[in-house]
Write a structure and sequence with these properties.
14 strands, alpha+beta, 6 helices, three-stranded antiparallel beta sheet, Structural Genomics Hypothetical 15.5 Kd Protein In mrcA-pckA Intergenic Region, Chain A, Pseudouridine synthase, nine-stranded mixed beta sheet, about 300 residues, globular
Amino acid sequence: MNSTKFIVGDMYVNNRIDKFLAERNEDVSRSRLKKLLDDGIITVNGEKVKANYRLRENDFIKVVVPDVVEPDIPPKDIPLDVVFEDEDIIVINKPKGMVVHPSAGHFDDTMVNALLYHCKGNLSRINGELKPGIVHRIDMDTTGVIVACKNDVAHNFIAEQFKEHTITRKYQAIVYNSFSIEGGTIEGKIGRHPIDRKKMAIVNKNGKDAITHYKVLENFKKFAHVECQLETGRTHQIRVHMASINHPLLGDFVYGPKTCPYNLQGQTLHAGTLGFIHPRTKEYVEFSVPLPDYFKKLIDNLSNK
């Protein structure tokens, strides 16, 4: 554990604390410093502050950087559908029911456990001991393409693209109710539901900007097959946005009807395409994976009604 203390001089007044700390802790990533601030391990005048806190003269900063703890997550020989792999990244076609990273109830059956085995532990460590290699996630019952990083340089490079919303992300979904239009755009800030904290919702306060573009691929009698392209990437964004226009996802028992006419395991949502600038070649790469069998059979069933 490394502990240091600073008293802010007048030349640093109004500097952001995260920038101030990054310049003095070059061996610690900005994302880790932010987490230490968020957790209150780094304090100003004994108080917890946010990463955008502006320094004042004579502020007393106490910096504690705990030693990096190696993940105590068991590598497991779980089959992975590898779409692409090189020395920097690995792209996976995630099946339905697989959790991306360990959480309550899932510690040895996640994609991370499989990645630790497959990559022999060579994964980025920026997101902490429970999420080695993980830059982004998709829900347990969402299928499709996801990228993980094998080193911190690749992780930072791709994470910045997610932050700047320059990643290409196209999903396919089956939603309730047919459309009278060919497509559209949904805009609505997304944040925690004001009453049910396990859910997300479109909110007026404390929400993050969220934009979803959708295109109708095929109308059925009571449902529709749509493609959704994310301009932003908020938690449950497609599920919340489509439900907000009276087109919740089929099988989504959180944001849609509590009963379903089909025997489904969660929402019918597939991350079909992911594109980004490669961290080493600096060239645009794009990966697409086919619809899972259950999704194709469901479309056939709906088409025949």
